[in-house]
Amino acid sequence: MRGLICWDLDETIGYFRPLGDEIVAELRASQEGLLRRLWSRLVGPSEVVPDPDAPPIRLRAGIDAALTRLGEAGFVQVVTTGSFEIYANRALERYGLRRHFADVFGRERVWEGRGKVYRDVLAQFEATPEQTLILGDSFERDRSIDEPGIVMICQPDGLDQPASALPPLIEALSEPDGFRAGFDRWLTETPVSQRWPVVLMMSEAFDVTGA
Ligand SMILES: [Mg+2]
Predict the structure, then answer these.
(1) Separation of CA 175 and ligand 1 centre (Å)
(2) What share of the chain is helix, strand, coil (3-state, %, to 5)?
(3) How far, in Å, is the centroid of ligand 1 from the Cα of 137?
(4) CA–CA distance, 211 with 208 (Å, rounded to integer)
């Protein structure tokens, strides 16, 4: 394995939130009221009440080609999302992207309220933090709160940026010793004006219990 890439879903791969409404409607129709209430409580009512002004579902430009190229380059790719797995899998399957991912980790497995926990993801693929890369649109939501040393590419406006820029950057960050070595080199070689997307290195784990 050349490296493990952990993709955030919403606003990183595409915009799929109307699918949440669809799933809730199905749950309601199937009279699984408990699940519906659970979804509503965990996700929040603002995300389960259909919004007539909600933008339509869309994929990030070039995402399928970027995922294909990274897979062919030898990277193992997974989704690590703060959304539920039923929603994430539906989004990926409906738009033909599920085949790119070795697994889809939903909030049931990675979400801790103040970021994501990646330890079980790394363990499943026997990857070290140095071999792992996080892709996301939110530092707060996508950062690792349990594994220091993971490099993260953070693009708050990623949905509006073509995904075609990612494979060259990821390959540039990838070195035999892992992404950390690539990050150190990238930092010394890249002028500040060209450091976009933002590349960060999680130098220490975040305290998930503190105030
Ligand atoms: Mg996101």
Answers:
(1) 26
(2) 45, 15, 40
(3) 5
(4) 8
Under 8 Å CB-to-CB from 19, ≥6 apart: which residues? 57, 87, 90, 91, 94
Q: What is the pLDDT of residues 160-169, one digit of tens each?
A: 999 999 999 9
Q: Are residues 151 and 183 in the same domain?
A: yes
* Short-list 24, 30, 31, CA closest to 51: 24
Q: How far is the CA of 101 from the centre of ligand 1 (A)?
A: 17
Check which CATH number belongs to the domain holding 97 and give it: 3.40.50.1000
pTM of the model: 0.86
How much distance in Å is there from the Cα of 31 to the middle of ligand 1? 30
Query: Within a domain: residue 206?
Result: no
Measured in whole angstroms, how far is the alpha carbon of residue 8 from the centre of its chain?
A: 1
Tens digits of per-residue pLDDT, 146-160? 988 899 999 999 999
